UniProtKB/TrEMBL annotation:
It comes from Arsukibacterium tuosuense. Its cofactor is (6R)-5,10-methylene-5,6,7,8-tetrahydrofolate; FAD. Binds 1 FAD per subunit. The lineage of its organism: Bacteria, Pseudomonadati, Pseudomonadota, Gammaproteobacteria, Chromatiales. Belongs to the DNA photolyase class-1 family. This is Deoxyribodipyrimidine photo-lyase. NCBIfam families: PRK10674.1.
């Protein structure tokens, strides 16, 4: 009887890349050291669980396209990628049982921080170890892993600025290291597993996300070009949605097509002197990558967040008005506030929204319409190509004044003055609202002054009135605290 080939399995989840992939690199190194052993990458599509997480169809398509592309890329590295279709996380254990029977000797993967995922990985680790399979997890989602940046008393930072200071001090102490591309000497024929596996091959994407390239080299080139040519202007341009002033890398960072290590490594290569100046474009961009890590640290330290609890416990008692009609108008971009409506169209049409607009639309939903921030959080998740729990939850709680933000709840964005400030000529509004294209640069921010144009809708709320109601809702819960 032919000797069974043993194999190491790399379970790809939020690290859909071949460069700087600790799990792939270590698995290939281990396989190389053992004669007659191979490395296989594995991806398991879990549409049922994705749906429970409200993952946008566009993001699902993006992941499927990236995995299909990665199959080709890894093939050139002599690594077969087995992409399977399962329903949910419960099926994953069955897949691993079948793989163990077929000759799997070790599992490698990158840590995930969400509660359900942690629970899933714990059970799988235990069962595999009981079956004699070695399990290796790599905590590489952040440059500074959660729990590694703490106050002097050993607590989690609850405010960003001191967290950032500590994070930067740690960066100065160490080099940001990226793993080289993994290469295997022996390509495993995944068809040999056919008799062992009862799960079908992953279904292809529907190509709804084709505007987002998925080839790894292309993504690395976008990142390099941003660091070489645009990052210097980031501090000036990043708040203006009509300008291409941000990197546009969020979808890649969210799915791990790109790692934060790669971004910072490149930033140091291209702009090291600028990183010494606090207000330079490079430093401000680095700050955004630190925000990304801050929210992940917060999520791990406060698991109640994943159960939809507000960070500031007293705000759980706010009596949101939750008017469904107003919510629908917001979702559809029919609020009568042009900057809000244009932003929601950007989200609905492209699956992405500029950061300044995420702040404006989130603030509008919560503080002008008095709708529970969790409604908006879920809606964003169901549309965003870069939808990612920690950043989305952090952003929503920031906007709702229920989160870690140091700014007081009574600072409420005025959507019209935000529009005048960050889209002064109405260029962004015009791009998404052709019905307002003829408005002049002043009236485009508030077209209701004389009378609402016939092809636009009236404002659904009065901002000044809404502000008063919101302040009262907050005062009620803050007072009852005392
Ligand atoms: C209400 C709200 C919801 C949000 N939801 C998400 C989300 O689901 N997924 C997501 O990746 N970002 C989210 N953000 C943060 C931010 O809006 C996006 O990361 C950014 O717009 C992506 O564009 P970019 O890649 O060009 O960013 P750049 O400005 O080039 O920033 C570089 C990277 O830093 C990270 N980043 C930037 N700003 C933030 C931030 N405020 N918080 C955390 N990470 C940040 C992202 O990974 C981003 O790709 C949200 C912000 C708000 C206010």
């Amino acid at each position: 009887m032919a000797k069974k080939t043993s194999f190491h399995v790399v379970w790809l989840r939020n690290d859909l890349r071949s460069y700087d992939n600790a799990a792939l690199y270590n698995a290939a190194a281990a396989a190389h050291a053992e004669p007659e052993s191979a490395v296989i990458a594995l991806f398991i599509a879990t549409p049922e669980t994705w749906q429970q997480h409200h993952m946008a169809p566009l993001k699902q398509d993006f992941i499927r396209r990236r995995v299909a592309q990665m199959q080709k890329e890894l093939n050139d590295q002599n690594i077969a990628l087995l992409a399977l279709e399962a329903g949910n996380y419960e099926d994953c254990m069955n897949i691993f049982r079948q793989l163990t029977d077929a000759g799997m000797i070790a599992l490698y993967g990158q840590t995930e921080y969400e509660l359900r995922e942690q629970h899933r990985d714990k059970i799988i680790s235990q069962q595999l170890q009981d079956a004699g399979v070695t399990v290796n997890w790599y905590d590489r989602l952040c440059i500074m892993p959660p729990g590694s940046i703490l106050t002097q008393n050993g607590d989690t930072y609850k405010v960003f600025t001191p967290f950032k200071r500590n994070w930067l001090a740690r960066l100065h102490e160490q080099e940001v290291r990226c793993f080289p591309k993994a290469k295997s000497t022996m390509l495993f024929n995944v068809h040999d597993l056919a008799g062992h596996l009862s799960f079908p091959a992953m279904i292809d994407g529907d190509d709804s996300s084709v505007k987002w390239p998925v080839a790894e080299q292309q993504v690395l080139e976008i990142m390099r070009e941003f660091c070489q040519q645009h990052v210097a202007d980031y501090n000036n341009d990043r708040d203006f949605p009509a300008v291409k002033g941000t990197s546009g890398l969020s979808a890649y960072l969210a799915c791990g097509v790109l790692s934060a290590h790669q971004c910072v490594n490149r930033l140091q290569m291209e702009a090291r002197p600028a990183l010494e100046q606090e207000k330079s474009g490079a430093s401000v961009w680095l700050s955004e990558l630190i925000w990304r890590e801050f929210y992940k640290h917060i999520l791990v330290a406060y698991p109640a967040l994943i159960k939809h609890k507000p960070f500031q416990a007293d705000t759980a008692a706010i009596r949101w008005r939750n008017n469904k009609k107003l919510f629908e108008a917001w979702c559809e971009g029919k609020t009568g506030y042009p900057i809000v409506d244009a932003a929601m169209r950007q989200l609905n049409q492209t699956g992405w929204m500029h950061n300044r607009l995420r702040m404006i639309t989130a603030s509008f939903l919560v503080k002008d319409l008095q709708i529970d921030w969790r409604w908006g959080e879920q809606y964003f998740m169901s549309k965003l190509i870069d939808g990612e729990f920690a950043a989305n939850n952090g952003g929503w709680q920031w906007a709702a004044s229920t989160g870690t933000d140091a700014a007081p709840y009574f600072r409420i964005f005025n959507p019209v003055t935000q529009s005048e400030r960050f889209d002064p000529q109405g260029k962004f509004i015009r791009q998404f609202m052709p019905e307002l294209a003829q408005s002049d640069n002043k009236e485009i921010h508030w077209p209701h002054k004389k009378s609402t144009p016939s092809n636009y809708w009236p404002a659904i709320v009065d901002h000044n009135e809404a502000r008063k109601i919101t302040l009262a809702l907050f005062t009620e819960v803050k007072k009852s605290d005392e």
